Amino acid sequence: VKPEDVSCPVCAAPPGSLTIEMALQVPQLGTWSLAGAQLKTPARWAPHLSCSSCLAESWGSMDSDGHHATFPALVPKEPPS
Ligand SMILES: [Zn+2]
């Protein structure tokens, strides 16, 4: 199943609303560490699935074959407080 062929499981946006891209996954800012004048934080490239309609997102992981990505369920975007 291609992401462009399915509707969003969160907001039921029509097919085409879901996009997958490789994005740099970084932890929350609170976990950054200061070393001298430099900021250092762990980061890794990971497949990112997101809905352009409701902004729900999911971080996936590459399968060991390097050709498939597995995504957990989409997480609805927290409304701004
Ligand atoms: Zn959605």
Quick overview of this protein structure:
The chain has 81 residues and is mainly β. It has no helices and 7 strands.
What structural keywords apply?
binds zinc ion; 7 strands; 3-stranded antiparallel beta sheet; 36% strand; mainly beta; two-stranded antiparallel sheet
Percent helix among the residues?
under 10%
The set of bound ligands, ions and cofactors reads: zinc ion
What pattern of helices and strands is seen along the backbone? EEEEEEE
- Distance between the first and last residues' Cα: 35 Å
- Structural class designation: mainly beta
Taking strands numbered 1, 2, ... along the chain, how are they ordered across the largest sheet? Answer: 1-4-5
- Any idea what the shape is? flat
Number of helices: 0
Nearest-angstrom radius of gyration?
15 Å
pLDDT < 50 stretches: none
Average pLDDT over all residues = 85
Sheet with the most strands, sense and barrel status: 3 strands, antiparallel
* Percentage beta strand: 35-45%
Record field, number of beta strands: 7
